[in-house]
Amino acid sequence: MQYLDVLAAVIGAVALAWIADLMTGRRGLFATLLVSGTGAVCGWFLAVRVFAVAVTGDWRWLMWSMLASMICLAAFFVFRSKR
């Protein structure tokens, strides 16, 4: 399975978005999915392209991806507008 790490990252980002949506009162799963996915891609980019601590074939970038997803979700819930 060549892309098992990518599948794990997608499942992890969806799980983080779903958990964040549940914890905050179900305000919109699409928005949390978008933020979580964007954060996961940014985490991959930082690990692989910017800091060069991993390659896409490794599993090390997955930790960076999930951490960036959590940071983006936290920032989303802190800075979003409350009407």
SSE diagram, text form:
Blueprint: H1 4-23, H2 29-50, H3 60-79
Helix pairs in contact: 1-2, 1-3, 2-3
Order of helices and strands: HHH
Which range does the strand content fall in? under 5%
Q: Output the radius of gyration.
A: 13 Å
User: Uncertain segments of ≥5 residues (pLDDT<50)?
Assistant: none
Summarize the amount of helix as a percent range. Answer: over 70%
Provide the domain count: 1
- The quaternary organization reads as single chain
Count of helices? 3
Structural class: mainly alpha
What's the story with the biggest beta sheet? none
Q: What would the principal axes of the Cα set say about the shape? A: elongated
Distance between the termini: 46 Å
Mean pLDDT: 91
Strand tally is 0
Please supply descriptive tags for the structure shown above:
mainly alpha; 0% strand; 83 residues; elongated
Summarize the structure.
This protein has 3 helices and no strands. With 83 residues, the chain is mostly helical.
